[in-house]
Amino acid sequence: MLKGFKEFLSRGNIVDLAVAVVIGTAFTALVTKFTDSIITPLINRIGVKQQSDVGILKISIGGGQTIDLNILLSAAINFILIAAVVYFFVVLPYSTLRKKGEVEQADDAQVVLLTEIRDLLVQTNGSSSGKHGGAAVSPPPEHGPRADT
């Protein structure tokens, strides 16, 4: 049981995950402080009358109680900032790298397939009795020796 756990830890993925969690937590704290100290005070001033602390986004419900929509708006801005950073600095680069790898693999597979087709055509034309006519197909210089030289 401990051997399996040790192998799980030594794979390396768990270390990457731990680093990502720590960085994500630190970044979340940074964005939260930013919204709490800069964005929220700006939002709180929306629609506030001169002698009042209650604005458009704070709804007084009587008895000194208010519904504070500023907190909800600040949390939404916090979420949008974090989601944008994660998307633009993690998801988008990862997707781009993954697509680039898939294109390279597809290109390699196409080259192999086209090479096989070319070789079959060379064999077929080279061993034909001339029934079909046409010129012999020669491979391009960068992929092998030319048949016509």
Mean pLDDT: 75
Q: What is the tally of beta strands?
A: 2
What best-fitting shape do the alpha-carbon axes yield? elongated
Helix content: 55-70%
Distance N terminus to C terminus?
A: 67 Å
Major sheet characteristics: 2 strands, antiparallel
Proportion of residues in β-strands = 5-15%
Structure description:
- 3% of the residues are buried.
- The protein is mostly helical.
- It contains three helices and two strands; from the N terminus they run ααββα.
- It has a two-stranded antiparallel sheet with strand order 1-2.
- The protein is 67% helix and 6% strand.
- The model has no long low-confidence stretch (mean pLDDT 75).
- α2 (13-44) crosses α3 (69-127).
- It has a domain at 2-98: Non-ribosomal Peptide Synthetase Peptidyl Carrier Protein, Chain A, CATH 1.10.1200.
- The chain has helices at residues 2-10, 13-44, 69-127; strands spanning 58-62, 65-68.
- Keywords: Cell membrane, Ion channel, Ion transport, Membrane, Transmembrane, Transmembrane helix, Transport.
- Homopentamer.
- The chain crosses the membrane at residues 12-32, 71-92.
- Channel that opens in response to stretch forces in the membrane lipid bilayer. May participate in the regulation of osmotic pressure changes within the cell.
- GO terms for molecular function: mechanosensitive monoatomic ion channel activity.
